[in-house]
Write the structure tokens for this entry.
Amino acid sequence: MPEATSALNGREASAGAITLRDAGLVGMITLRGNLASAKLKAAVKKAVGQAVPEVRRMAGGLEGGAGWMSPDELLLVTAHDKAAETVAALSAALKAEHHMAVNVSDARAVITLRGGHAAEVLAKLAPADLDPDLFPVGELRRTRLGQVAAAFWKSDEDTFHVICFRSVADYVFDLLEASAKAGPVGVF
Amino acid sequence: MLTLECPYCGVQADETELSPGGEAHLKRFGPGSDIDDFEGYLFMRENPKGVHFERWRHAYGCGKWFLAARDTATLEVFGTYPAQTTEPPQALREAISAKRPGWRWRDFA
């Protein structure tokens, strides 16, 4: 089998205080089902070591995380080589319940955005309010960046992880780079 | 610009994050129903100047459908609510009545 490669193949860029980096291979699983179910909660805990997050929240991070995507959908983040077995474990644990667990790792790209005004780099591209008071650490937002769908979460005060579809990874990276190069706005 | 609060995410969603779904609270008349009912379901739409109820989908966000009440003339948004209902919630109707006394939309007032 050919070796798995991330869409951006380790691409990096920096502009001023901002660094952009391909987060490499990240295991991502879409899990849909009844988020209130005890079985699902236990299965998620076992799969990524995190509790089912509150609305709009990301629990954990790249090393093991669970993000709230919609009232019946979670994004589970794990190591890329663990994704397939995690899906199998989830499917086995939730066999008796109406659910769906799919490995979407290779359908998506993850970009790490770091720097003092990282929030402004995103705010220029998305119709989301990134004011630090309204968008605290651990918040996850599904929205659009420029012309494509994307999601991002805030891992710490000046770091964001951006998720987008693999096919538009170059576009999103270029977009973020252009926004970073234009410099800070000084709003936040 | 239209900004609607998604009742599922609680996000203030910009119009560009949403996709419109036409009129809200349509009752479906399928095969075997009366021809006039079917015509009404298929073609007859309200076109008010004022209070209107619409379906919207948080397409770039959680992907869920929700319903919104707004004024077509001023773009004032009265409120949004989940789609799993056959009529606007009472609290919302009262809020609209406070701002637009005597409003009427299909069978709702």
